[in-house]
User: Fold this.
Amino acid sequence: MVRMRAALLLVAVAAAVAGLAAANFRDDCDLPWEPQNAKFTSDGNGLSMSLVSNSSGCMLRTKKQYIYGTVSTLIQLVPGNSAGTVTTYYASSVGDNHDEIDFEFLGNVSGQPYTFHTNIYANGVGNKEIQFKPWFDPTTGYHNYTISWSPCMIVWYVDSIPIRVFRNYQKSYGVAYPTSRPMYAYSSIWAAEDWATQGGRVKTDWSKAPFVANYQNIHLDICECGYGGCSTNCPAAAAAPNNGACQLSPDQRGLMQSLQRNYTIYDYCNDSKRWTNGIKPTECGLPQY
Assistant:
């Protein structure tokens, strides 16, 4: 059902990607960690990052910070036995009490699916993990991963299908939401064999190194920060989901609900072991569409 309905959105998908501002990995990003493990294509629109040892991965970061906007790229994840590896695409502020919006892709042994791990930190507090099993093989080709951050909601997309929404209930219900700390967009690959695969039970087979993730065509439609500060009312901030309506369209909502029913493998709101006396975080009882 997800695939059938997603096919109906192909035109919208192409339009959405075309509407983002094309950027360049080589010209618009820096490599703050282990740059020797990165390789750019000749035009700078492609990138590979390698994990070569337990302490030597790679990180890419946009040169510009932003408050609100949409960041998007195509990723081909590490094939084969990727146990213990973590490939990421995320946005984060720097400093204390940071804000962060995460896509993390947790590797697995050959033949077992990846875990798509999403999380959000606001004012330094995270613990809002929702995980999915993929409905396709993310290692055999490129797939689009998008983070949309607007004043009213954050949306995680895979191939332009929304998989998760986190709404801004800060003023109405006191739920922390990132609104003021400038973020960079990041991509990275690193080792986490102590927890990433089956709770750390499966370790990395370092004889398979290097583990390589490939990226193509980064797009940035963001409210940039400069020497004069950050603009939070630029067109990118106003371009909230569904043409500024601050909600998903009925088709998008249906796709997300179907995908969540069939592919969610962990939701912090439903983890009874985490909540004392069954009292869940406030946002767990609020609409997230």
Notes: The CA atoms of residues 41 and 150 lie 32 Å apart.
